[in-house]
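Sequence, please.
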């Protein structure tokens, strides 16, 4: 039985097959409409989420399965003091697969070690967010036709943003990728990631000004300043509007640069960018559903034949 804790749990070849499946789903939704009939997905969310939880639920419903779960720790037995290990043992009796989000780094991993059903990490603290990374990779692959030979700028809260950490981790396995990390001094990429890049000899730069990097980017990954992970509100207020992507800055970019954002957006992308054909963040949400459908099928080892 397989779980998904980190994007690196799948090899590049396995990811290719997953993305091929997601693309087939995109073009042939009806073929998959009953693939998970009789199966249940449990969404165990100990931390707020709209997109990720509903994306998982929508994915399972699109596959003809059903969904149970909770969307905040207060309404689960965690509020009575139950451990994650006990909760997953119980959930294993109710569902066939579980997506878990938790504020503590490593919690879904603890759950996976005690689980008799596949567990998907739907975000653990400031650590990893593998299904967002699968979404990001599928979006890049579908809209630009490749997962190699590009310069990607990651901008905003690179310290606390788990989507950033997961995406860098995943991209280093593809050929000829250059990173430009754009953040204020206080929100730089953690040292362990910088060490990993140096070890692998992957080219990267750390800069503060977004404007200077714009003309060089093939992809721009914007992120929200992660208020809930700050130790004090003053720092958050000081940093929250450090970057605002607007029409003027988009004028500095390449004609085919794509703008991605895991969402939710706060102020970091002005709404006047939404109409720009390079704005890919709402398409990204749709790709998230396809890739989660593909992931559920893969982890449940369900194959859909051509004739079906
Ligand atoms: C991200 C997350 O939860 O880390 N959101 C998401 O899953 N789409 C990004 C964020 O909250 O800023």
């Amino acid at each position: 039985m397989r779980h998904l804790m980190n994007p690196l749990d799948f090899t590049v070849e396995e990811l290719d097959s997953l993305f091929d499946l997601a693309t087939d789903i995109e073009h042939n939704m009806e073929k998959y409409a009953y693939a998970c009939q009789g199966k249940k997905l449990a969404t165990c969310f100990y931390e707020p989420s709209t997109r990720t939880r509903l994306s998982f639920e929508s994915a399972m419903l699109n596959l003809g399965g059903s969904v149970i779960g909770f969307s905040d720790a207060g309404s689960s037995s965690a509020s009575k003091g139950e451990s994650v290990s006990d909760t997953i043992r119980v959930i294993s009796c109710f569902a066939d697969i579980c997506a878990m989000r938790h504020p503590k780094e490593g919690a879904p991993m603890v759950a996976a070690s005690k689980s008799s059903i596949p567990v998907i990490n739907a975000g653990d603290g400031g650590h990893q967010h593998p299904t967002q990374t699968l979404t990001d990779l599928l979006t890049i692959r579908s809209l630009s036709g490749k997962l190699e030979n590009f310069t990607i700028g990651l901008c905003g809260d690179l310290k606390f943003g788990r989507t950033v950490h997961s995406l860098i981790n995943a991209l280093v396995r593809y050929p000829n990728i250059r990173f430009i990390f754009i953040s204020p001094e206080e929100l730089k990429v953690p040292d362990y990631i910088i060490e990993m890049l140096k070890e692998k000899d992957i080219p990267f730069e750390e800069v503060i000004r977004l404007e200077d990097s714009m003309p060089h980017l093939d992809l721009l990954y914007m992120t929200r300043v992660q208020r809930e992970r700050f130790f004090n509100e003053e720092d958050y207020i000081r940093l929250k509007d450090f970057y605002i992507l607007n029409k003027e800055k988009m004028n500095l970019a390449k004609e085919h640069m794509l703008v991605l954002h895991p969402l939710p957006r706060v102020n970091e992308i002005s709404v006047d960018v939404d109409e720009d054909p390079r704005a890919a963040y709402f398409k990204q949400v749709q790709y998230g559903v396809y890739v989660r459908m593909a992931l559920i099928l893969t982890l449940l080892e369900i194959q859909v034949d051509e004739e079906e």
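The CA atoms of residues 172 and 202 lie 7 Å apart.
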